[in-house]
Design brief:
alpha/beta, Spore Coat Polysaccharide Biosynthesis Protein SpsA, Chain A, 2 domains, 10-stranded mixed β-sheet, 48% helix, globular
Length: 338
């Protein structure tokens, strides 16, 4: 049994996948397997991966038709044999050659199912920024050492941790098949089952910030809203009020931003319905009771759009001149058809 299985889904990443694999294979913890899932790439990503596989027997390749990153990661989970699982995106790297070793040593030493460290953002110009703490709304989240998840209650950063495979398999924790926001529900479910984790005081993961990577398509918007709904429900069921607040803020910021950019699309009705469904799941009274102040009662921009659109329609409907013109146009159209 390898100590860690590193799961890497790849779709058209010929520019970065080599550097990613170099980073993984250079780890001082050598007792690992590297599961690379080629998710239907149309560039030469697979050829690059195969070349690495020839040079290192620790690499396992799964070549499949494109089914999305969530399905690819789930395929990796199912074939993994490691004591722990680690997840990596194909354009990212580890922050040091000791990253996996330190995570594994901490997990074994502390007897926890999840251990990890901090994230470093890598920008296009080569500059970096270490995420020592996370902030959303009025909440600042950080963790050091042995930490109870009920004291942490955060939903981002799953790539910075390793997870005991037994925890994931026994509790059937897999990634939902969303095109966006599939990792926070996975991370939250794993953390809830683990109950506690160990946080290293060092960066372990280098997350590349690619310009224009997150396109706000209608499908991604719907999936993002569904992922937020998942976390709102999970937080309520497990009495995690801070997570509920953070999920509501995600809806207020990311969800509303994506929705606003797709309310003119063919999927506008579905997006608006999903948006209202998510909003209805926010327990504002619970948040207020526990001292969490909602931001402007959530999502005013989207509802302002809907209201202003309906007002404009009502004004047009009541416009006598326009109604007369439409009536004439209708009669002329019928006369032409005759």
């Amino acid at each position: 049994m390898p100590k860690i299985s590193v799961i890497i889904p790849v779709f058209n990443m010929k520019k970065f996948v080599g550097a990613c694999l170099d980073s993984v294979l250079a780890q001082t913890l050598t007792d690992i397997e590297v599961i690379v899932i080629n998710d239907g790439s149309t560039d030469n990503s697979l050829e690059i991966i195969r070349e690495y596989q020839k040079r290192d027997s620790r690499i396992v390749v799964i070549d499949k038709n494109n089914a999305g990153v969530g399905a690819a990661r789930n395929d990796g989970i199912r074939v993994a044999t490691g004591e722990f699982l680690a997840f990596m995106d194909p354009d990212d790297m580890y922050a040091s050659d000791e990253a996996l070793a330190h995570c594994y040593e901490a997990a074994i030493r502390e007897g926890v199912s999840i251990a990890g460290g901090r994230n470093v953002l890598l920008y296009e110009d080569g500059t970096t920024r270490e995420e020592v703490e996370k902030k959303i709304g009025d909440i600042v989240v950080s963790a050091n050492g042995l930490t109870e998840y009920k004291e942490y209650q955060y939903d981002y950063g799953y790539l910075c941790f390793i997870y005991k495979r037994k925890l994931i398999i026994d509790n059937q924790i897999f990634f939902p098949l969303y095109s966006r926001f599939q990792d926070p529900p996975f991370f939250v479910k794993a953390m809830i089952k683990a109950e506690r984790f160990y946080a290293l005081e060092e960066p372990v993961y280098l997350y590349r910030q690619l310009p224009g990577a997150a396109k706000m398509t209608p499908i991604k918007t719907l999936d993002c809203l569904q992922g937020i709904i998942d976390n709102l429900q999970i937080s309520k069921e497990n009495n995690l009020v801070q997570l509920h607040y953070i999920s509501a803020e995600r809806l207020n910021r990311e969800g509303s931003y994506m929705a606003l950019h797709n309310l003119e699309s063919a999927e506008a009705k579905k997006i608006l319905y999903k948006f209202i469904q998510a909003t209805a799941m926010i327990d504002v009274e619970w948040l207020k009771k526990e001292g969490f102040v909602p931001s402007d009662y959530f999502l005013p921009e989207v509802f302002d759009y809907v209201l202003s659109t309906s007002v404009k329609y009502e004004r047009l409907r009541k416009n006598v001149f326009l109604r007369t013109a439409l009536g004439i146009f209708s009669r002329v159209t019928k006369w032409i058809k005759k």
